[in-house]
Fold this protein.
Amino acid sequence: WNEIIELFRAGMPLRKHRCRFKSYERCFKASEAVDCLHELLGSNQNFGPEVTRDQTVKLLKKFLKNHVIEDIKGRWGKEDFQDDGHLYRFPPSSPLKSYPKKPSCGKEVIKFPDWNEPKAGTSQEHIPVKSVTMNSEMWYKRHSIAIGEVPACKLVFRRELTQTNIEEIWKSMTLSRLQKVLGLDSLDEVLDTKLVNSKHIVQNAYNVNKQGIVTLEDKSKELPHWILSAMKCLANWPSCSDLKQPSYSGFERDVFKTIVDYFGQAKEPLLTFHFFDIFVSVLGLLQKHSKAVEALQISCLLLPPENRKRLQLLVRMMARISLNKDLPPLSESVRTRTLMVQAFSRCILCSKDEIDLDELLAAKLVSFLMDNYQEILSVPSALKTSIEDHVVHVQRVQIKYAGADTDTTLPPTSFCHQISTDEFEYQRATGSQEPLAALLEEIVMNKEISVKDKKKKLKQFQKSYPEVYRVRFPTPETEAVLFPEKTKQRPPLLTWALKKPFQPFHRTRSFRM
């Protein structure tokens, strides 16, 4: 969102236009905005040439609704933008959205559950032991048992892990790996981890058939048989195994429309509203192919099993239809691949609020899914192996030695790290400027106060916080845009040609001599 706005504001030519016998400076026509933004999106690596002019118009409607642009009379908030000759301009306020604030003290480490707390009444022989990192002193102690320098070791058995314990290990290690692949300090920026169901992860990893498709425990959540038959018909065209060959022209289009209508009536996309931000964050990794594939592999593992299965079947069908040269065209005006993306992207990914770049982001992600669906929708083998090894290690019998005070099975505790005085002053300054900048923006955007009161408040703010004010209004021109001068008709000047100054009249008396 921010990247496209910055490119659009920098690349959109502004000039003087006339409308109804009146001139307007630094504005542009709606059709000119569509031309400029369409060219920018087509050349941007995150969108590409598949972006249509109609999609560009829809994005400009979002811009108008979110006050990225406004008409020449300052109106905005509605999606009534059209590809015509109406005049628009950029508002003086910043349309960029703030990024989530990252924690200042180190990286958050997703903690593993601790099952080493002994139960009440547990004997000393079954106290869980902490394994030790080998060093020279410990090596000497361990290997000097034979000569009696230290007490002999003894076996200690860990408690048996329950299914719930194992599911929590899967959740912890899966989220930890996802955070590392995305390169984030914390997943809180893009995901509410409380909404991640550990049972779903385990079911998606183990309940699969030979083709890697999830098998559901609840059969009532399976796709209807007639939809499965329709999908198989188009995916395997013309060799349909369980359907007879069509006897009329346009049969394949009717089947395709039936599938589109079925998936389009769902109340929630297959990738769910909760995981929208996590999938959108993967778009930044598309240039790094292997990382993007791994991130999507792990993210799809978090889905409810019924959603994951439907996604697997749908994307596989879309990919096969796009590559099937024997299938008649499903549209007269749109290529088959583009039609697949346009028809199903919304039922795969969209946000709950339906704002911003939903359609373009979904199209980009769905295209990548179609090209790499076999890898992405399979269980990540490296992650599965590491988790299984960890579970075995936790359940293994341990050997207790004197001085063993660390546990390598669990990640080390993360503490805040010391920073320099200069870095502290910088963090304190930037941390306090954010709410002040928000306060200044609130004053600027407040339409309920009069111009006189707004000028007074801005002057007080400038006097109290000159640095924050200078960032918002770097030049006098940016400040002047808020208060356009009104042309006042001056009354004609009355000119008085007075040769001598006015003398008061004095009555005098004359006396005759």
